[in-house]
C-alpha cells in the first residue's frame, strides 16, 4: 500500500494504483477523454492533468498514467490546473469543433474563445477506439497511420479489415463522435449552446441500440 495526499486529504491505496484512480476512489472528479477503466491508460488528451507538488515547486502531470507513490502530494483543481485544462479544451475544440462533448466541456469549464486555428478533423487522436479494438476485441483492425499533423485512425489500405468483427465498439467508445453539436454556426469555434444531452439523430440501419450518431453518420470502420 502507498499513502499520498490528494487535495489536502491523506489516503491509502494499493501499490500500482494511478493518481486518477486514487482520486476517483475518494469521490474527486477529474475530467478525462482518453481514459477508460477497461483499457490501458494512454495519456493522450491531457485533460486529466493534476498538480504534483514537490516542496516549493510543482509540475502538471496526466493523472491517468501517473502511479501513486508514498508521500506524493497532489492538487487536482488548482488555478494552474484549471487554466491548463481550459487551454487543452481549446486545443481539442480546434481539431473537433462539432463535438458536442467538447462543446459541453468548454461550457462547463468557462472556455469562451478558441484561439487556435480551427481545422476540423473529427478526431482528437485519443486512441480509445484503437485500444478497444485491440484489447477488448483482440482484433487490431484499426490503428494510427501517418505522422505529425497527418496522424489519424485508419485501416490497412483504407479497406474494411478482415479482422473487423463489426462490433461497433470503436464507434461506441469514441468520446467525440457519439453526438454532434447541432448549432447552426459556431462563434470562434464555440457554440455556447444548449447542453441538451438528448440524442440529435438516431441511426435507422442498425438493430435499434438507440445510439445517436455524429456528423459523419454511424460509421464502423
Ligand atoms: S467494429 Fe471492427 S474495427 Fe471497430 S472495434 Fe469492432 S472489431 Fe475493431
Ligand atoms: S476516432 Fe474517436 S476514439 Fe478513435 S482516436 Fe479519434 S477521437 Fe479517439
Ligand atoms: S484522460 Fe489522462 S491523458 Fe487523457
From TrEMBL:
All copies of domain 2Fe-2S ferredoxin-type, residue ranges: 1-80
Gene Ontology molecular-function annotations: iron-sulfur cluster binding; metal ion binding; NADH dehydrogenase (ubiquinone) activity
Iron-sulfur recorded as keyword: yes
InterPro entries recorded: 2Fe-2S_ferredoxin-like_sf, 2Fe-2S_ferredoxin-type, 4Fe4S_Fe-S-bd, 4Fe4S_Fe_S_CS, NADH_UbQ_OxRdtase_75kDa_su_CS
Keyword set includes Thylakoid: no
GO CC terms, sorted: membrane
Keyword tags: Iron, Iron-sulfur, Metal-binding
GO BP, sorted A to Z: ATP synthesis coupled electron transport
Domain 4Fe-4S ferredoxin-type as annotated: residue spans: 154-186
Short name of one Pfam family: Fer2_4
UniProt superkingdom: Bacteria
Name of the protein in its database record: 4Fe-4S dicluster domain-containing protein
Amino acid at each position: 500500500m502507498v499513502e499520498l495526499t490528494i487535495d489536502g486529504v491523506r489516503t491509502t491505496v494499493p501499490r500500482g494504483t494511478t493518481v486518477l484512480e486514487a482520486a476517483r476512489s475518494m469521490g474527486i472528479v477529474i475530467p478525462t477523454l482518453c481514459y477508460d477503466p477497461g483499457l490501458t491508460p494512454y495519456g493522450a488528451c491531457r485533460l486529466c492533468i493534476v498538480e504534483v507538488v514537490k516542496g516549493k515547486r510543482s509540475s502538471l502531470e496526466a493523472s491517468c498514467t501517473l502511479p501513486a507513490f508514498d508521500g506524493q502530494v497532489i492538487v487536482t483543481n488548482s488555478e494552474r490546473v484549471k487554466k491548463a485544462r481550459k487551454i487543452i479544451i481549446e486545443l481539442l475544440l480546434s481539431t473537433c469543433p462539432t463535438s458536442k462533448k467538447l462543446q459541453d466541456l468548454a461550457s462547463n469549464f468557462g472556455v469562451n474563445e478558441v484561439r487556435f486555428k480551427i481545422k476540423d478533423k473529427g478526431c482528437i487522436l485519443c486512441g480509445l477506439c484503437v485500444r478497444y479494438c485491440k484489447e477488448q476485441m483482440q482484433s487490431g483492425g484499426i490503428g494510427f497511420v501517418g505522422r505529425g499533423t497527418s496522424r489519424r485512425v485508419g485501416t490497412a489500405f483504407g479497406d474494411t479489415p478482415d479482422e473487423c468483427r463489426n462490433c461497433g465498439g470503436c464507434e461506441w467508445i469514441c468520446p467525440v463522435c457519439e453526438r454532434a453539436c447541432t448549432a447552426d454556426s459556431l462563434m470562434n469555434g464555440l457554440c455556447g449552446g444548449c447542453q441538451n444531452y438528448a440524442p440529435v439523430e438516431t441511426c435507422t440501419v442498425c438493430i435499434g441500440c438507440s445510439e445517436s450518431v455524429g456528423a459523419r453518420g454511424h460509421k464502423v470502420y
